[in-house]
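Sorry, any thoughts here?
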Amino acid sequence: MKITPYTRKSLESNLKDETLSRFGLLAGQEGITPLRIAPEVNVVKIGGHGVIDYGSIAVHPLITEIKALCADFPMLIMTGGGARVRHIMDIGLDLGMPTGVLASLAGKISEQNALMLSILLADVGGQAISTADILEVPNLLRQGVLPVTQGTPPFGLFEVPPEKGMLPQYRTDCGALIAAEVLGAKSCILVKNTAGLFDKNPFLCEDAELIPSITTTELMDMGMDDMVMEHKAVEILSHCKNLHEVKIVNGHNPGELTAVLREGKAGTIIRRG
């Protein structure tokens, strides 16, 4: 075949002449149902600040509960960072580190927590995996592995610059939601150190009231200054296709994780919509 300088060769595709950012094109994709890769998996994110930082008094009962549940409820365990993330970010801010560097440093801390929990869960198949291995979760579960990974999204140096300040916006709650969405998981559960989402910080305000159920639209309209779930995680949930809700339970109360997995009971349920 003779190719002239004036001949444009292109693979046939419905998107071949698109910029991929045209609003009309994007709107036309709303009816597409994404494949659910692991529809039986429960993504359980264990907070670093809320649970792991308390040490054995909080972690060991929760580990015992997970061991009793994991045979009946396939899980992907994800971990937060906690106090050490706050410490390294404080130092990083003082030294003028860019947001992407702060995000990379934070990920190393939540990875450490994932390693420790995987060791505690080793006798029931606990194994630390990389965030790059998320798509291996269905196969790992079939082999009797209980996968444990960090919750920090792997944006690293490519972390999106925040609207305000320098701290990374996409932290471990966000990572758990994104993982649950891409897997098409059965549920996404955030294990915290409070009964759920409150209208005010319950550790500072005695009159704080628990919000048992709320939609993402209602929550974003409240414009809360501080809350137990990351602001960007609420925004992510509002855009999800597979994931319809996030449940928050108190990891310091033995039995709450069991109740949410067996009966759907949670301190707070945040629904997309």
Residues 245 and 271 are 4 Å apart (CA to CA). The beta strands are 42-46, 75-79, 126-128, 146-150, 187-192, 213-215, 245-250, 268-271. The mean pLDDT is 93.
